[in-house]
Design goal:
Elements (H helix, E strand, L loop, with lengths): L2 H4 L17 H27 L1 H9 L3 H26 L3 H29 L9 H31 L9 H27 L1
Helix pairs in contact: 2-3, 2-7, 4-5, 4-7, 5-6, 6-7
Family: Belongs to the cytochrome c oxidase subunit 3 family.
Protein name: Probable cytochrome c oxidase subunit 3
GO molecular function: cytochrome-c oxidase activity
Length: about 200
Amino acid sequence: MNTETDSRPRAYPRGRTGHIPGEAELWIFIMGDLTVFGIFFAIWGWNYTQNPGMFELGRSTMSQPIGLAETLTLISSSAAVVAALNSARWKETRRAFRLYLAAIGFGAVFVVLKIVEYSRHLHEASNPALGEFFMYYFVFTGIHLLHVLVGILGLSIATRSMRPDSRGASVAFLEGVGVYWHMVDVLWVVLFSLIYLI
């Protein structure tokens, strides 16, 4: 272990308790976002109970391997963000830089997989028997994809702040980016379960 690096002061000492990551305003936004997606999930569930046959038919057209790959890329990206934030707290900026780049890479793979998946389903969406299923699918996953793109932008800013020629970023900002990215991850896990599995 590199004692020179590890002996540097942490942004938050081990003894500190009660710390809420990020800024208070971010949590207001996240709670609002979670409420909106909660409504989305309720709409999906309600319509499923009204027309389960259509939703089962729509689910049969979904590729579980692609959905699983998308899930694993976001989980891997979240793990990289956790490690990057920890490195940033220890002021290991080079390692944090590489980990944020890895998180962005995993996020980009998710975007590519989603575009591939969309292209597969565009012609199926014109089927009257599946129209309502794919309307919800494209709207809900499209809004989530927009969140992914915003998250990648935030991760890009965090990555840039780790460069030697940068003035750096506050730990609160890096925490906020991490919390937002974990929210995106959790929302996708729920969407994956609803659309591909349940």
